[in-house]
Amino acid sequence: MDEFKSKITDLLKEDARRSPELIATMLGESEAEVAKAIKELEDEHVIVKYATVINWAKVDSERVTALIEVQITPERGRGFDAIAERIYLYPEVRSVYLMSGSYDLLVEIEGKTLKEVASFVSNKLSPIDRVLSTRTNFILKKYKQDGIVFEDHEDDHRMLISP
């Protein structure tokens, strides 16, 4: 990817609502060139989706998010890809990452209740052939996501004491 497209992706990552006109102004380029580059990035699946980050703690919506560490035996000829594909096709699954370290895949899922998440793990994930073990971690509170801090920063109101 050239430097021009890289700058565009950086600007859109910060704020996907930026228009080609605004990006052109920020980069000192023509709007037509920016629009063309964005279209190419979309066609090449570099830009896959424009998304909104929501602080669900401020919304009247019950959600349970879990990160599941999964140890698997890789499949001959396809490695981890076939099992990862089988897992990411479930609608509950938000993300799947191949990891280094003590487990192979990190699976992020979302459900309405703890019971729903537990049911997914025990009835869908664990029975998959080649899954050796799982370890479920529930997200209790999000402080920061995608570079966005959710908590309001409180100033330190303690008095300064000097010797």
Automatic annotation (TrEMBL):
<keyword id="KW-0238">DNA-binding</keyword>
<dbReference type="InterPro" id="IPR036390">
    <property type="entry name" value="WH_DNA-bd_sf"/>
</dbReference>
<dbReference type="InterPro" id="IPR036388">
    <property type="entry name" value="WH-like_DNA-bd_sf"/>
</dbReference>
<protein>
    <submittedName>
        <fullName>Lrp/AsnC family transcriptional regulator</fullName>
    </submittedName>
</protein>
<dbReference type="InterPro" id="IPR000485">
    <property type="entry name" value="AsnC-type_HTH_dom"/>
</dbReference>
<dbReference type="InterPro" id="IPR019888">
    <property type="entry name" value="Tscrpt_reg_AsnC-like"/>
</dbReference>
<keyword id="KW-0805">Transcription regulation</keyword>
<dbReference type="Pfam" id="PF01037">
    <property type="entry name" value="AsnC_trans_reg"/>
</dbReference>
<keyword id="KW-0804">Transcription</keyword>
<feature type="domain" description="HTH asnC-type">
    <location>
        <begin position="1"/>
        <end position="81"/>
    </location>
</feature>
<dbReference type="InterPro" id="IPR050684">
    <property type="entry name" value="HTH-Siroheme_Decarb"/>
</dbReference>
<dbReference type="InterPro" id="IPR011008">
    <property type="entry name" value="Dimeric_a/b-barrel"/>
</dbReference>
<dbReference type="GO" id="GO:0043565">
    <property type="term" value="F:sequence-specific DNA binding"/>
</dbReference>
<dbReference type="InterPro" id="IPR019887">
    <property type="entry name" value="Tscrpt_reg_AsnC/Lrp_C"/>
</dbReference>
